[in-house]
Protein 1
Amino acid sequence: MDYTTKKSIAICIPCFNESKNIDELYSRVCNSIKNLNYEFQIIFEDNNSTDNTVIKIENLINKDKRVCLIENQLNYGFVRSSSNVLLTAEADANIFLMADLQDPPELIPKLIEEWNKKEYSVIFCSRSSSKENKILFFCKKLYYFTLEKLSDFKVVKDSTGYGIYDKEVINCLRKIIDSYPFIKGLVCASGFKWGTINYKSAKRKRGKSSASLPFLIDFGILGLVTLSKKPLRYITFSGIFFGLIGLIFSLIVLITKILFWTTFQFGIAMLSSVSIFLLGTIVFSIGIIGEYISFIHRRSLGLPLVIEKRKINFKSSKKKVFKKTFSINLDER
């Protein structure tokens, strides 16, 4: 056995219209890993950018053989694109890093140091504070608090997914992955030991975030339906509760009417208020059930995470067969 072989680490970076950040991101990543004795890959996955992001990455490929590119056929959204780049890399450990520079690449040596201790299979970077919008940061804190309370197991909080994932975790995720995965939640649900490193998130200096309010809501709901069945259980209990309340209230009204037939008046306003409240409760419950049904439907389609338009600078190797095909490469047709 060759004990001199270096361990391999892939730094996986999804990007969309990040041309203004690519050069600084690359420079900071290189400075962070220059004194580390590992075989590194820096893998960018472009999600069909409309600016010069791909050109910038191709320029990096021409001067650094460690840089690789996956170019998607379409914009598949952050969830699918980021999952694909993390699961594509073949290394002893994969590091997931955002391209917006809000998560500091300077934490990479610390992540690798913690991974080498073999105490955790995944080490997440968790935001202890942030320079972003305070209201948005508070809402995220509130969401993760709610998610933790609703989940059936401990979940990582205040993390973009930035962290290091051991290859055993990556191999497991490849087998259970679907076309719209909540990676952080799946790691926690699978039972792997994970730890955290706290850091202060920076404010985006260049470019515009693609994380719109509808996306944040959608991503939040994805986390809930992936990690918890409690909302459905609460709907069941609410139905039983309101059913009993309705039965008791009906009996009270009936008995009161019999006893005070000529004087008792059950007002239209009260009936309307009760009806509107119950209608709102029913519609809200149907909405929650609909989200779970939508989640099941999406998984049942068996779609790939992405269709890759092309891959550049990847080493040719025998293609591994997983339980599910999580991406399709047009170059391999």
Protein 2
Amino acid sequence: MNMKVKDPHFILEKIRKYLDEDIKPSRYRSVVELGNWKYKETSMDEPVDGAYAPDYDDSAWADFKLWDTWGGYDRVAWFRTVVRIPDEIRAFQGKGCRIALRFLVGPRDGGESTAETLLYIKEGRELLTGSGSFAVYHDDRGSWGEHVWEESVCGAFQVTGSKVVEVNRMRAIVRFFLEYDKSEMMVDYILEKGSDRLKMRLKLRSAEKQRMITYNLPVAAENPSVFTETAFLAEDKIDCFDSNMEHYQHRFADITERADGSGIAVLNNCIYGFLQAGAQYRLILLRSSSFARGGRGGLAQNLEGRFMNQGCYDYELVLIPHEGRMNKERLFAEADFLHMPVAYLGDSSHTGKEWLRRGRLLTIDRDDHVHVSAVKTSEYDRSELVVRLFETEGTGGNAAVSANGVQASVAFGPYEIKTLRLTADGWKACSMIEHF
């Protein structure tokens, strides 16, 4: 279809009018000049510790003003200035809103954008009362943690350096190096495009003796509740003010405000449990006690004792902040993915018209609160397929299972677990030990 515009100049004028009178005023509530800056340029590997802190002393940095030149390849540029938040923006604080700062240093990508800093008002609430930390405690307790004889704070890992590992359109990775006494840690923080998760990769080399190393996360919850995993159930069973605060058997812990369900879910593949001190979640990373000594008190800090957890350990954590209650099925799904990541097979070379490795073993259509717990071959007949599902929210649900052209529909009661076995006669319900 061909279309002719009688007066293209008139159309362009209307567009300019809408931009100037409607769109631009909506984007900028007010404009504040940021004229005087402090500037420091470093290499990619040279840390500038604490330069992000408001009280950092930047008096030795160079002065920088608008239109000054800066930067270069593989260089890091630090800019610091004082921003006065306009009164009309500040008025939104304390009304369930946060103020976020966006800083662009343009021009970029060959466009006409210029350097600008934007303050945005974002509805929501702060989910932490402070920063996460890696703490170290003197740890004297029973062999199974049943008696806490002494637990006192020794200190915390301190940042010794940082670097940007990767930045692209899909993800960003920032790496921090930390030390405590003779122990050291490397932590990668990973943000992926379109994801609400913060991933953390930890490498910890411990030389501690009779110490406990934890990751502490102070969640903003006046009346905290913690959902952790039991068999086929996410259960609110933690006493957050128990004198013996250690809890075991968990791949996830969802620490929330009981009133509205807002909080932070923490998933991990660590080897110990966690402690809950009020609203502070403490994930136990390592515990360097002596092997089942059957006693109490201080231990000699020499080679006579056999201390646990000496050496290097690798962990992965996933933090998922959420406003409002999180679907418990997602907790199980995220934990499964962390502990059992999807395996893939490389295909052979081909022209693209025919995939040499493809196929579908099983199709499961389910409600968003029905979780698939297991898919495996039967213990009694390796030619048969077994599927186990359970309902996570206590509301009941439905699922449809299909394999080899054989289908079955399944209805679930609240928190019900069901196991299906695909036999020569079709899908049949069986017990958890696969008996009919």
Protein 3
Amino acid sequence: MLPPLFSVKALPSLRPHPLTKSLSATIRLPVKLTFNRVALSVTVLSVLSTAPAAFAQVIPQRVNASYLESAPYNSAGLLFTTVNGYEYRGSAVVARDSRLLYSCAHVLYDAGIWATGGEFARAWSSSSSPASSQTVGIRGFRYYATYSGGNRASDFALDFAICYRSANTSFGPALPWLKNGPNALADSAVPKLILGYPARRDYDRARGYFYQHQTGTFTRAMRQAKNSYYTLSGVSTGPGNSGGPVLAYTNGAYALAGMLVSGSSNSIGVHGLNKAANSMAANILAGFSTPTDTDAVSKTVKNTREFLLPDASNAYSYRDLTVSGLGTTSQTSKFSLLIETSFRGDLDTYLRSPNGRIRWVHKHSVAGAGRDLVLTKADYSTTFAGSDPNGVWRLYMRDYYRGDRATFKKAVLVASGN
């Protein structure tokens, strides 16, 4: 079904606004949840300024519930991620293959730290959030190694990620995809549609809760801002819509052309699917047919250089473990650690793989903690499976509270790959 076509009036050209946390007229996507996820209240990380703004002519509308089990609506959903101990929400879509979930990188990243977990709720539409039993978990994700956040056009050109499940599982029905999404984005003859989950709509400040919304259709051509990053004025969405699919209607059906990565009250920014994005998906799919871990070769690496952690520090210290000579697909990762302290509740510790995946080892807590942080062959294989184990693994540590000094003694990683 092709939704009704909205015309877009020519509006004054505005500089495309990044989705930042700053106090400006911009909106940050995704949304940090400050309460339990089942609560209705969410907090938008930025604050709208009181400066006047031109508003868009194409705006998000709640999707009719009767559409949710038909394409393209039944492939889009909510993506919840855990980053640095906080939970965020954004949007995502199943495309190309039922094991692939497309979104944007900043739904999975914040301030130098990548997500350690994620859940997807397909075709959800309600005033309340789904329970964990109504979601499916992600096994891992890939992104551009050079992405590090930021608000420039060159940063948004890298703001792309694909989550995946294991070989024999599914996120749900997959939409077709375009090999050259930017061509469709820049074509004024192609109808376009945005799906997603704005927690708050830009144009009227109303809450979107956990309802699926559609913006469009519209045909206006987007312009290239930088590489795969395209922008358009006259269209708006809202915080929480980040990572939502931008679809193009071609050959009688909707296909994925790009991902929403930025926006304001009168503009959107889109990462178009290009050769690099499609290669990322192809590499994930190729990994599903890799040999089993019985064929994998393992290596053990250690760091025993002792270090007294700074007391009451906001900054992290680190120790590295360098792996080389393994196959490029990680099979198992087992980690041992000793940090000596009279109170381990002061410690924040996490392990970062060469390609940026994060596994939290310990988070500070004033309750239920004892002496020393000790791990013996903790199995982190699920977190790092499928990624390249070769390179520098970095253990980050900080002693968050004053007193009870801590000393790093040793870390041991046993990794295998094929």
Protein 4
Amino acid sequence: MQLAISGNQSLAMSGMLAGGFLDSRKDALVNAPLMREKTVPEFDLIRAKKLSPAEQNHIGYRHSLSERKAIALKQAAKWFHEAAKASDAVAQYNYGSLYYLGEGGKNKNYNEAFKWFNASADQGFANAFNMMGVMHLLGEGIEKDYQQAKTCFERAIELGLEASKNNLGILYENGYGVEQDYAKAQSLYEAAVKTGAPEALSNLGKMYGSATADELHYRKAFELFTNASEKKYPRAFSFLGVMYYNGEWVRRDFKKAEEHFRFAAEKNDIQGQLCLGLMLLNGSLGKINKAEGHKWLKKAAAQGDKLVEFAMTADLSPIVIDEFTCLGKKITAKGKFELYPTLQHSVEEDGSIHYCLLDRELGLHSWSPTRDGLIEAIKYDLDFIWSVFVHKPDDRLDTEALGLKKLLLANFSEES
């Protein structure tokens, strides 16, 4: 089985650059011109009878850094709200972020989040424009509007948020409201990478690690994913897991793949949850664990992907190929030859789900709407591969083709 780096929208959107809480003193001096870093000691801020909006936001920001998140964010919310009411742009952005995330004692409320982001954007705060673009793109609390998303991302960039080029790149990569342009998307991702944004590192790596990539591109993808993973970005761990699973640039290692998928899954990354669930169900870890596999698939299903829903009832147990025929001759496995099926969205893009088997070492890419159909498709493809590579003299094969021939002969024998 070869896992795919998904281009499905519900998975791809995790590559969106969203926000985090910001400190007025460092991130919006234009809105607090008299403040400078460490101008006012912390105890003086807390004891002061009258605080400026920037100081109120700063206290909220300091609360947001606490490891005791549940309590600290409720305290942060109070300070953000006070500063936001006084029209501090950064505080308005931070207060909107609490509603967007459903934190700080707030229920997730996209309408409230958008209201505060909009108020912040009215004062020219770049991060607020970026988040409005995210919400327009995903249709969170408002109708999806790709043109508005584009406008917001471009405005954020104009105001100096270079990392928002990552989000604009997503529009061009997927053709959302613009003509699809991979070269422009790559250029935007590369620009965003310079800011250190892990989302951009991961998205650029995804482009290098596409299905048509060669070894040079796989190496670049692996480097980018590794850099993003060092920033603890969950989606990068998922993509590294894919590369370890498939043996792309690195030696195939199911255990390392599982470790990377598990890290991402525990951080609520849908691709990590999906891939870990599939591994637990298809036997690639040495045994099938339906209970845990279904647990992770249910978590992924809650984030909304038809492939995950289909996987809950699919038979993904290992496929054993005992024999197949080639040019009328029986080809028999020398031992137990197992392949690990997975699932993919139909290549017809009609919303249907197919069983599939991708094995880079064997050169297999077989798929079918049914498991039985997949088995027949695999045998058909093995028949073709055997006739092309095994029946051809060694001196007519390049190094890669010769390696494939040796792999086939190590696992199967042809009747005399």
